[in-house]
Write a sequence for this structure.
């Protein structure tokens, strides 16, 4: 749209000259940020995109879906709109990220071509002239182009069209040339003869870690993200990323993190080069340990937490939240977070198992403040022999306006077999404004 | 005569300890504080550096509430961090804090698969320096339990498995042998009588189903207090409730 037309459409339109050089500088900065947080291989894609090879690194974010959501949200927090796509190939991810209307999309493995065949050929990363000429010939979508015999196309447009089509389907490799900062600490080892055995890989990974730690020690840094680049003789590359919860400069600790995953390395025809990079490093100063005869040594469990984290398991601690509503009174915090002194207050007993969602039960009860005589939960009738309650919990109106009047009355009941349950009634039993007066099962006591 | 016999028994004990490996010598125990229970266990308590297995009885086979709280009470009385491995995150931490297990001490490791829970437990047990490692498991094969037991023996960390099945009928799986040093079944009993309406201190029926170098036993105990201790319930002489127990064994 010409500027004059836009000005005619919108009153008071502000015009700023495009500054491609500044854009590129900013994009480089974002690429370095992505390198630190998300993936060992990051490169700038065109003038408006980034490409990340996240294979072997997404587990640190909890999987692909949490990862793309996190990426989108961190842009959204800065009032920027990002489109994130995950696909098997660079070409497919490039096309999908620019075509989708949603914020994020994940193309399942093997479904790549089906996802891109309806997309316009302008997303094929071809020169503009080629795209225009193809349009003249009547090609609209990538699928149409792919189903046409190759030879006439190559004769008319050169090999570029075929190459891009193969790249989008993953038939030919398209290595990403990763960016590096000047101060990245990196050590590498070339092999005269390709190596492949697990023991050999372990041995050299161990030596590289020793070298890397020596480098880091000189600079007073500790590693937060370390990448192992495995370069093979057939010019393919595999990357393993290990993350740590705190800056680390410990040989045994780092070696363990990589050796845990040696089995994931596919040596193929052999490995000719191993590179170990400290993608993210933070200052780590030596500190003196207080040697005390009286105080007991507290074990540092951070290495164990890193082992679990790099296996893709969720590691967390639970911390109290100042809320009376049971399901809100607990939050997950990082396993290495500072110790929290406060704990839950109140002498009321709490159930060991809390049902993820309260389940509706049938109860026979005298309103308003007597415990039920009997309840029926999941088809089993429990005769209430003893009960304690009610413990009244009010809704938190500052969170949701609907909770302004809401009330829950909790009872602890025991049946004739000694099974103890935590049930509640929505509402105070008198005023229908406070709740539906239905009964719910919420937890199981020991 | 008796001195000679004692000498012979002590000699035999030494030879057995040598067969069990060097670690067995510095095996120490965590006493329950209730003499009846401690007497039934060799060494006078739950051994550190060993695997212990707890299961629920009745509907507790599915929710495992009593077994989990019993495990939490034991973990609370150990020193050092506690690693709790699970697949179903429905544990309500305020209840664990009420038996003395502070939230700061517990690190949860949530895995998608049972096998990962076993792997995490083994890793944590062989790390050393932890107070206890608790895992909630459906299946505990012999080989896996042997690995956990060996890892626990190497470092002297207490390993606790809370068995929790998907359905009550699957619970006869508990009859399969495992390498655990002790195996317990914890079933709920009606709570202690109060002079006023209300629910008193909960009581459990503890069955010590297997113990290495010891005999099986049964106890009626009062549930964990705020320090994680249990004690023999005064109502245990009353056997009126024993007819109802172990419906599934």
């Amino acid at each position: 749209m010409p500027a004059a037309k836009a000005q005619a459409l919108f009153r008071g339109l502000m015009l700023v000259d495009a500054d491609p050089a500044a854009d590129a500088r900013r994009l480089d900065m974002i690429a370095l940020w992505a390198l630190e947080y998300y993936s060992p291989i990051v490169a700038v894609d065109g003038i408006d995109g980034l490409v990340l090879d996240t294979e072997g690194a997404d587990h640190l974010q909890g999987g692909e879906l949490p990862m793309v959501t996190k990426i989108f949200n961190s842009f959204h927090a800065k009032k920027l709109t990002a489109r994130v796509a995950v696909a098997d190939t660079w070409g497919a991810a490039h096309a999908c990220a620019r075509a989708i209307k949603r914020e994020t999309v994940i193309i399942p493995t093997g479904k790549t071509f089906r996802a891109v065949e309806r997309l316009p050929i302008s997303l094929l990363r071809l020169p503009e002239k080629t795209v225009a000429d193809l349009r003249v010939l009547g090609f609209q979508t990538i699928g149409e182009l792919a189903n046409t015999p190759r030879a006439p196309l190559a004769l008319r447009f050169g090999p570029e069209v075929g190459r891009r089509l193969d790249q989008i389907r993953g038939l030919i490799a398209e290595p990403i040339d990763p960016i590096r900062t000047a101060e990245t600490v990196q050590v590498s080892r070339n092999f005269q003869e390709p190596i492949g055995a697990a023991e050999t890989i372990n041995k050299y990974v161990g030596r590289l870690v020793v070298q890397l730690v020596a480098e880091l020690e000189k600079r007073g840094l500790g590693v937060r993200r370390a990448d192992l680049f495995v370069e093979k003789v057939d010019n393919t590359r595999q990357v393993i990323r290990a993350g740590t919860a705190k800056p680390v400069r410990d040989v045994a600790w780092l070696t363990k993190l990589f050796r845990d995953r040696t089995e994931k390395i596919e040596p193929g025809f052999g490995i000719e080069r191993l590179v170990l990079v400290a993608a993210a490093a933070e200052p780590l100063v030596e500190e003196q340990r207080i040697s005390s005869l009286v105080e007991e040594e507290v074990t540092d469990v951070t290495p164990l937490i890193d082992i679990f984290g790099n296996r893709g398991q969720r590691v967390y601690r639970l911390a109290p939240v100042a809320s009376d509503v049971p399901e809100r009174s607990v939050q997950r915090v990082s396993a290495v977070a500072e110790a929290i002194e406060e704990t839950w207050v109140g002498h009321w007993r709490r159930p060991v198992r809390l049902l993820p969602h309260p389940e509706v039960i049938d109860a026979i009860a005298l309103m308003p403040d007597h415990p039920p005589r009997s309840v029926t939960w999941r088809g089993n009738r429990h005769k209430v022999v003893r009960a304690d309650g009610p413990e009244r919990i009010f809704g938190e109106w500052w969170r949701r306006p609907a909770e302004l009047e809401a009330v829950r009355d909790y009872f602890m009941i025991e049946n004739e077999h000694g099974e103890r349950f935590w049930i509640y009634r929505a509402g105070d039993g008198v005023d229908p404004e406070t709740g539906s007066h239905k009964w719910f099962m919420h937890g199981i006591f020991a | 005569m008796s001195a000679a016999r004692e000498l012979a028994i002590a000699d035999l004990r030494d030879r057995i300890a040598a067969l069990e490996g060097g670690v067995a010598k510095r095996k120490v125990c965590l006493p329950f504080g209730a003499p009846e229970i401690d007497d039934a266990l060799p060494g006078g308590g739950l051994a550190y550096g060993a695997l212990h297995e707890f299961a629920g009885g009745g509907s507790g086979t599915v929710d495992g509430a009593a077994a989990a709280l019993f495990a939490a009470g034991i973990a609370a009385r150990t020193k050092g961090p506690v690693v709790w491995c699970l697949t179903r995150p429905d544990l309500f931490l305020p209840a664990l804090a009420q038996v003395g297990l502070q939230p700061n001490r517990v690190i949860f490791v949530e895995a998608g698969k049972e096998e990962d829970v076993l792997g995490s437990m083994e890793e944590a047990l062989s790390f050393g320096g932890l107070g206890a490692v608790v895992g909630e498991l459906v299946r505990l094969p012999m080989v896996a339990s042997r690995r956990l037991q060996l890892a626990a023996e190497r470092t002297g960390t207490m390993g606790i498995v809370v068995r929790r099945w998907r359905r009550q009928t699957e619970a006869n799986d508990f009859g399969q042998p495992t390498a655990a040093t002790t195996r317990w079944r914890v079933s709920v009993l009606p709570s202690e009588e109060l002079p006023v309406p209300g629910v008193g201190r909960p009581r459990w029926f503890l069955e010590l189903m297997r113990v290495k170098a010891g005999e099986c036993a049964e106890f009626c105990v009062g549930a964990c207090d705020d320090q994680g201790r249990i004690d023999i319930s005064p109502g245990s002489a009353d056997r009126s409730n024993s007819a109802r127990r172990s419906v599934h064994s």
